[in-house]
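Hi R.,

Quick one: here's the MBL fold metallo-hydrolase sequence you asked about.
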Amino acid sequence: MKLLTGIMIGVLLLIAIVWLSKIWSGGNKSKPFTNSEKAYQAGLSSLWPIAKAYWHTQRQAPAPIDAVPLITLTQDILAQTREDAVYRLGHSTILMRLDGEYVLIDPVFSERASPVQWAGLKRFHESPISIADLPTIKAVIISHDHYDHLDKAAIEQLAGKVQHFVTPLKVGEHLTMWGVDPTQITELEWWQSVELNGLNITATPAQHFSGRGIFDRDHTLCSQLGYSGVTA
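And here's the predicted structure, written out as tokens:
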């Protein structure tokens, strides 16, 4: 029942956000970002079928019945690995070891991917490693600013142990508002690259949309990011 209530609240909030965004966007003079190929035309007409599907479709196991098996990670365990490695921490959150240093992608550590922690999409399991237990992070890479990819609380906690943040255009503005030093942030347009002491990061086109609230639909860029190091 709690799951259904959370879903209903989330869908209603999404409908309200899109509807109000359309009203506001008529007077907004800044030009939004657009996809290179796929156009998303989200609106009340498309969201209502989604809402009905959430309420009426009989889904098999929409959430795990039993605890999701996890292997706990610590700095000591990570230090035992000398090779390049990839660790999945959650839906979008990836920790990579590359050339002996660590890169963290789309860090989300909060319980819910939502503007509030009392409603919204809830994670199925805790992160296998806490922010406090993470090693020094060479770079945090953000693909776009949706709540399931950009977690304000995580960014605020990570700022002291991250050397650099790399984001698509305009996403870095969120980070500066949350206290990250602007000198630690690099924003990339599609096909732009940055080199961080041997780690090369390139932003490539993503066919998606962005926004965290009522008034910012597609006002930040979405990117897929490619990585290369000295040995990988």
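The domain at 2-228 is CATH 3.60.15 (Metallo-beta-lactamase; Chain A).

Cheers,
M.
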